Amino acid sequence: MTDVVEWRTAPDQPVITVEDLGIEFLRGRKRKLSLREMIYRGGTSHNKETFWALRHVSFEVGRGEAVGLVGGNGEGKSTLLKMIAGTLLPDEGRARVREGVAPLIELTGGFIGELSARENIYLTAGLHGMSTEQVDERFDQIVEFAGPQVRDGIDKPFRHFSSGMQVRLGFAVITCLDEPIILVDEVLAVGDKAFREKCYDRMEALLEQGRTLFLVSHSEGDLKRFCTRGLYLKGGAVVQDGDMDAVLDQYNDDIMSQS
Ligand SMILES: Nc1ncnc2c1ncn2[C@@H]1O[C@H](COP(=O)(O)OP(=O)(O)OP(=O)(O)O)[C@@H](O)[C@H]1O
């Protein structure tokens, strides 16, 4: 992990600007239609009903902010993170990201199952602009952080790793990159307790360096520990943007009033 973050933006310029962002998904996957439905829908067997997973979402994030995304299941948190990472494109509006992004969004970290853990380290770091020599230099540090099980399986196909091992490797690689913005989606909950503590220490170190963090978590403890600002997503819209504690209070009040 580098301790120098190279910024492209001026200190007072937002590193992320999300403007009127929206994305529409098909509500269901393929399902069998009745003959009557097929005739009326022109013979297709796809359900074409759509919904807006996110709509009219706008906010800015400044350099070094630590933002927690809060919301119930299916309210659009992971989708928003993927749009900031650029792996999903908007149907409306835009997400402008002015710095490099290190995303740990899916459990697999976007790694390729058929490649070995070693090959995935070089591939992922290379895609984030690191030269082979730079990865060589950090390789041992990455593997050491990921732990002995990962070291023992370093030349095995990644798909043979347990989900815990996959997260260990994903977290080790992503947090070793030099990217100024880090996106973490619910992965801290997967590792065992000892590894979680290591992850917490590393997240704290990254924040001390002034990196920008987006954290999706259902753990109030994790959100309060790392984030000062909260965004509350409900029905694909931002219903609250403010102090993390206040956002969690609102979210908890809503949950209590629904139950
Ligand atoms: N690729 C996709 N195609 C169709 N629907 C999708 C797709 N990805 C997500 N969705 C739907 O979009 C909505 C938002 O999903 P998302 O994963 O962003 O929610 P979330 O807030 O992260 O939920 P959770 O807390 O359960 O992880 C859900 O209804 C989900 O089923």
Overall description:
The protein has 259 residues and is of the alpha/beta class. The chain has 9 helices and 9 strands. The protein has helices spanning 35-40, 77-85, 117-127, 132-146, 148-152, 163-174, 193-208, 220-226, 244-258; strands at residues 16-26, 50-61, 66-70, 92-97, 101-104, 181-185, 212-216, 229-234, 237-243. Strands 5-6-7-3-8-9 form a 6-stranded mixed sheet, sandwiched between helices. It has a 3-stranded antiparallel sheet with strand order 2-1-4. Helix 4 (132-146) packs across helix 6 (163-174). The longest helix has 16 residues, at 193-208. The chain is globular. It starts with 15 loop residues before the first strand and ends with a helix. Residues 25-26, 53, 71, 73-79 line the site of adenosine-5'-triphosphate. Residues 33-259 form the ABC transporter domain. Pfam families: ABC_tran (PF00005).
List the helices and strands and how they pair.
Blueprint: E1 16-26, H1 35-40, E2 50-61, E3 66-70, H2 77-85, E4 92-97, E5 101-104, H3 117-127, H4 132-146, H5 148-152, H6 163-174, E6 181-185, H7 193-208, E7 212-216, H8 220-226, E8 229-234, E9 237-243, H9 244-258
Parallel strand pairs: 3-7, 3-8, 5-6, 6-7
Antiparallel strand pairs: 1-2, 1-4, 8-9
Helix pairs in contact: 4-6
This protein binds adenosine-5'-triphosphate (ATP).
Residues 25-26, 53, 71, 73-79 line the site of adenosine-5'-triphosphate.
